[in-house]
Write a structure and sequence with these properties.
Blueprint lengths: L1 E5 L6 H9 L16 E10 L15 E3 L2 E10 L14 H6 L6 E7 L19 H20 L2 H10 L4 H9 L6 H11 L11 H15 L2 E6 L6 H11 L5 E3 L2 H12 L3 E3 L6 E3 L7 H17 L4 H12 L3 E5 L17 E3 L5 H8 L1 H5 L1 E6 L4 E3 L10 E6 L2
Parallel strand pairs: 1-4, 1-5, 5-6, 6-7, 10-14
Antiparallel strand pairs: 2-4, 3-4, 8-9, 10-11, 12-13, 12-14
Helix pairs in contact: 1-9, 3-7, 5-6, 6-7
């Protein structure tokens, strides 16, 4: 799973990326600080399933802290996108192509309105962040349209002459951006396009098709960043009403980064996603540092978290609709090395016991007998749809 972090320059996108991953990336308040995409690992936060058995998980990847398990997800931070990106403005074509493999997108905006359309700093509140939501959707739609339009006339004519399924052909045309045949079928049906005459589809219909394909293959949510600034929450509440079909989460990447770095250095004890932290060595902090932590504490008291962890969790569990499934044994939760529930798989929403068996190993899937719910100790069949948090033992023929 790969999640892309996108947005215009200077909206706090790289700060968000660093706060989510603690990766060493350059952060500056001027356009195009990021040129080459940055890859790193972030974590979604779920309850540690071993806790109810009186144990603590030993993750093969990720970590456990204070009864919570942090499961890794891959993140990519691309350079800032500006209006006209699909035409190559600001090296936009290159940056869009960096997103090809992404399963979902987190659009980071400056919800305080302190950066203009080009990513240049302005007075807080002088820019309407709603324009950023609209502009990026438009850029992505036209990016998909540009891919569709490459040789479209010849392509559509061949589909008519050879009676080739249009959805299959679109999958081949857009496989690089993760459009599947089923996604294409659903989009064509939703728009009620004439499958027998794709050569007659007009420009507006093709743009609508591009939008539907983009929404399905690159679902996107908005991280309303810089929520600690004046006027930000008023803007956030307005945007939620203005764009009812979009997932918004208010956040302050700057405050999250400050807390994580302070935790890493041993100054505070902080659990990502929580609404409080403990100062461990107050006497070692100067007046400025104490004042900064007091500001963070006041923000958390009012808003319950910095929002960064919630953004990641929303992207995986609400946007992509994944569920955490754990392999385990009814009589033993440890693997052969003694590690407790070492693995966690973020499975698709409709994943069945058989899907999980194949995810563990092809042989488990091919030789599947049954699955057993470790908590209830009851067997389930191959078509049983698993639930988030299930611990499952797979029985297979040897």
């Amino acid at each position: 799973m790969l999640i892309g972090i996108v947005g215009k320059p200077s909206c706090g996108k790289s700060t968000f990326f660093k706060a989510a991953t603690l990766a060493d990336v350059e952060i500056a308040n001027y356009p195009f600080t990021t040129i080459k995409p940055n890859h790193a690992v972030g974590f979604v936060k779920v309850p540690d399933p071993a806790k109810e058995f009186g144990k603590v998980s030993d993750p093969r990847t990720g970590y456990v802290q204070a009864g919570w398990r942090f499961v890794p997800v891959d993140l990519i931070d691309v350079a800032g996108l500006v209006p006209g990106a699909h035409k190559g403005e600001g090296m936009g074509a290159q940056f869009l192509n960096d997103l090809n493999a992404a399963d979902a997108l987190i659009h980071v905006i400056d919800v305080s309105g302190s950066v203009n359309a080009k990513g240049e700093p302005i007075a807080t509140g002088d820019y309407d962040p709603a324009e950023d939501v609209k502009f990026l959707e438009k850029e992505l739609d036209h990016w998909y349209l540009a891919i569709i339009m490459k040789g479209w006339e010849r392509f559509a004519r061949q589909c008519v002459q050879e009676k080739r399924p249009m959805a299959f052909s679109l999958e081949r045309q857009l496989s690089g951006v993760r459009v599947t045949e089923q996604i294409a079928k659903d989009a064509i049906a939703k728009l009620n396009l004439d499958t027998g005459r794709p050569d007659a589809w007009n420009e507006e219909q093709l743009l609508q098709l591009a939008r539907e394909l983009r929404i399905a293959s690159k679902p996107m949510m908005v991280a309303a960043n810089k929520a600690d600034r004046p006027g930000a929450w008023e803007n956030y509440e307005r945007l939620v009403k203005e764009f009812p079909d979009t997932i918004f989460v208010a956040c302050s990447a700057e405050l999250e980064l400050a807390l994580k770095e302070a935790h890493k250095s041993g100054v505070v004890q902080y659990l990502p996603g929580e609404g409080d932290f403990n100062i461990k060595e107050l006497e070692k902090l100067n007046e400025k540092q104490q004042g900064a932590l007091q500001f963070v504490k006041k923000y958390l008291d009012e808003h319950k978290s910095t929002g960064v962890q919630q953004v990641l969790n929303h992207a995986v569990f609400k946007l992509l609709k994944r569920k955490a499934i754990y392999p385990g044994g009814v009589t033993k939760l440890e693997d052969s090395d003694g590690n407790v529930i070492p693995d966690c798989f973020l499975m698709e929403e409709k994943a069945t016991a058989l899907d999980f068996a194949f995810r563990l190993h092809t042989d488990f899937g091919k030789n599947f007998i049954k699955a057993i719910d470790v908590r209830t100790k009851l067997p389930v069949g191959k078509d049983h749809v698993l639930k988030d948090g299930n611990i499952v033992e797979i029985a297979a023929r040897k």
